Write a sequence for this structure.
C-alpha cells in the first residue's frame, strides 16, 4: 500500500522498552536502602491488594508476580530477589490454611520470582546495552556525515581538478573543477577511465604513472603537457595512494594543477638568461681581446727599451695583464648569473703561464696543488695578481746567481676560508723583496679579498694569504 503523508512507523517493542528504561535510569542510581525501601513498599501494596481481594480470589500470587516484575524493571537484580522473598513471606500469612498445596504454591512463587527477576534483569541489561550501542552508532554516523561533509567541501572548493580512482583506473569521485577540466559532466565520468577521454599516448602515460604508484605505494608527481580545449597546457599532476577502512590499497587520488603560466615565465626567464649569458660572454671576450692587444703593444715597446728598470716595469705590467686575461678566459656563469672561476683550473693554468714567462730554462721547479672551488671573477683576479707578485718575488730574489730550488703553490679550503701559500726554499727574504712594490701590491690584493697576508722565513720564504670562502 502506498504510504501517505503523515504516516508514521509504529515504534518497536524494543524502542518502547528502551525509552521506559531510560526514563527509569535515575531510580537505579538511588542508594541501596532507598531502593530496598521502595521494594518493600511495592510488595506491601501487592499484599494489601491480595488481602483486599479475599479468599475467593482465584490467583492469589498474581499481585506479587506483578510487584516482582515492576521492581525488577525499575531496580537491579537484588531488588527483584528481595521482592520475591518478601512476597513469599507475606503470602505465607495471607494463605487461609497451610498444607501441601500452599507449600507448593510458595515454592513456585519463590522459584518463578527468582527466575523472572533474573530474566527481566538480563533483558533490561541487554536493552540498555542495545540502546547505548544505538546511541554510539548514531554518534558515529553523525561524525561520519560531518567528516564527509567537510571532506566534500574541501574537495569541491579546491580550484585544482581532483579525482579518485579505483585500482582498475575507473573514476569513483571527482570535483567540479575536474569535470570542467575534462569537459564532461561529473556524473558521466563515474565508472569511466582516462582512455575514454584521452588519446592513447596520453592515456598510456597516465596509466604508467598510476601503475608506478600502485606498485610502490608512494606518491608520484610529474609535469606533463596535455591538450585541454584544443590548447596545449602544462599541468603538475600528483598521484597518491588511497587506502580503504581496513588499511588496504583501494585506489588512487589524483590532483592536477595548471602551471602553464609558470612554464611560460620560466621559458622567458631562461631565454633572458641565455641572452644575458651570450652578451656577458661577448663582453668577456672583447675585454680579453683588449688585454691581449695591450700586452702585444707593451711587448713591442719593451723590445725598444734599453733601461733594465723600465724593462722590469713593462714585464711586470705584461704579467699582470696576462693574469687579468687568464681570469676572463676561465669565466663561467653561476646559478645567480654571476661570473665564476674554477680556482683549481685558474691557478694551475696561471702558474703554467708564469712558469714559461718567468722561470724559462732556470733550474727552478714549480709545484702547484690547488683544490677545485668556485670563486667569483673579481676575487679570482685579485687572487691571480697576488700569485703573480708572489712568484715574481720568489724567482727574482730567492734564487740569485743561477741558484737552483723550488717554489710550491698550495691552495685549499680550511674552516670556511681559503688559504693560499706560496713558499720557496731559496735564500730567504731580503730588504728589497720584503718592502718592494710587489709586497705592497700583495697587501693591496689581500685587502681587496678581505683577508690577511703574512710572511714567514727562514729558511726560504713563505707568503700566506687567508681570506673568506664566501664573498
Amino acid at each position: 500500500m502506498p504510504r501517505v503523508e503523515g504516516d508514521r512507523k509504529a515504534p518497536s517493542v524494543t524502542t518502547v522498552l528502551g525509552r521506559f528504561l531510560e526514563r527509569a535510569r535515575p531510580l537505579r542510581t538511588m542508594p541501596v536502602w532507598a531502593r530496598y525501601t521502595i521494594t518493600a513498599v511495592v510488595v506491601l501494596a501487592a499484599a494489601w491488594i491480595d488481602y483486599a481481594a479475599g479468599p475467593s480470589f482465584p490467583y492469589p500470587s498474581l499481585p506479587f508476580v506483578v510487584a516482582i516484575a515492576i521492581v525488577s524493571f525499575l531496580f537491579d537484580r537484588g531488588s527483584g530477589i528481595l521482592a520475591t522473598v518478601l512476597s513469599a513471606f507475606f503470602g505465607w500469612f495471607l494463605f487461609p490454611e497451610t498444607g501441601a498445596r500452599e507449600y507448593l504454591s510458595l515454592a513456585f512463587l519463590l522459584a518463578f520470582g527468582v527466575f523472572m527477576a533474573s530474566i527481566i534483569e538480563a533483558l533490561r541489561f541487554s536493552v540498555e546495552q542495545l540502546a547505548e550501542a544505538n546511541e554510539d552508532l548514531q554518534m558515529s554516523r553523525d561524525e561520519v556525515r560531518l567528516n564527509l561533509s567537510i571532506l566534500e567541501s574541501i574537495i569541491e572548493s579546491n580550484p585544482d581538478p581532483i579525482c579518485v580512482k579505483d585500482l582498475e583506473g575507473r573514476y569513483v569521485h571527482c570535483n567540479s573543477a575536474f569535470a570542467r577540466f575534462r569537459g564532461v559532466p561529473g556524473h558521466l565520468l563515474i565508472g569511466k577511465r582516462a582512455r575514454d577521454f584521452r588519446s592513447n599516448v596520453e592515456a598510456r602515460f597516465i596509466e604508467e604513472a598510476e601503475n608506478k604508484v600502485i606498485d610502490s605505494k608512494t606518491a608520484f608527481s610529474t609535469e606533463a603537457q596535455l591538450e585541454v580545449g584544443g590548447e596545449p597546457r602544462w599541468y603538475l599532476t600528483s598521484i597518491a595512494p588511497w587506502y580503504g577502512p581496513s588499511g588496504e590499497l583501494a585506489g588512487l587520488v589524483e590532483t592536477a594543477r595548471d602551471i602553464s603560466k609558470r612554464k611560460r615565465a620560466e621559458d622567458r626567464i631562461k631565454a633572458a638568461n641565455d641572452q644575458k649569458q651570450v652578451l656577458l660572454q661577448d663582453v668577456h671576450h672583447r675585454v680579453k681581446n683588449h688585454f691581449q692587444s695591450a700586452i702585444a703593444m707593451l711587448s713591442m715597446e719593451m723590445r725598444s727599451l734599453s733601461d733594465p728598470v723600465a724593462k722590469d716595469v713593462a714585464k711586470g705590467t705584461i704579467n699582470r695583464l696576462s693574469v687579468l686575461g687568464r681570469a676572463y678566459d676561465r669565466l663561467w656563469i653561476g646559478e645567480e648569473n654571476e661570473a665564476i672561476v674554477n680556482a683549481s683550473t685558474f691557478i694551475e693554468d696561471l702558474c703554467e703561464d708564469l712558469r714559461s714567462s718567468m722561470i724559462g730554462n732556470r733550474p727552478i721547479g714549480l709545484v702547484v696543488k690547488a683544490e677545485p672551488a668556485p670563486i667569483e671573477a673579481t676575487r679570482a683576479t685579485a687572487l691571480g695578481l697576488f700569485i703573480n707578485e708572489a712568484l715574481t718575488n720568489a724567482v727574482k730574489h730567492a734564487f740569485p746567481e743561477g741558484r737552483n730550488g723550488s717554489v710550491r703553490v698550495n691552495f685549499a679550503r680550511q674552516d670556511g676560508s681559503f688559504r693560499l701559500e706560496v713558499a720557496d726554499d731559496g735564500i730567504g727574504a731580503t730588504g728589497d723583496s720584503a718592502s718592494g712594490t710587489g709586497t705592497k701590491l700583495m697587501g693591496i690584493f689581500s685587502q681587496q679579498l678581505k683577508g690577511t697576508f703574512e710572511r714567514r722565513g727562514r729558511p726560504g720564504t713563505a707568503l700566506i694569504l687567508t681570506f673568506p670562502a664566501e664573498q
Summary: Confidence is low (pLDDT under 50) at residues 1-6. The first helix runs from residue 13 to 23. The chain has three domains: 13-151, 158-258, 265-468.
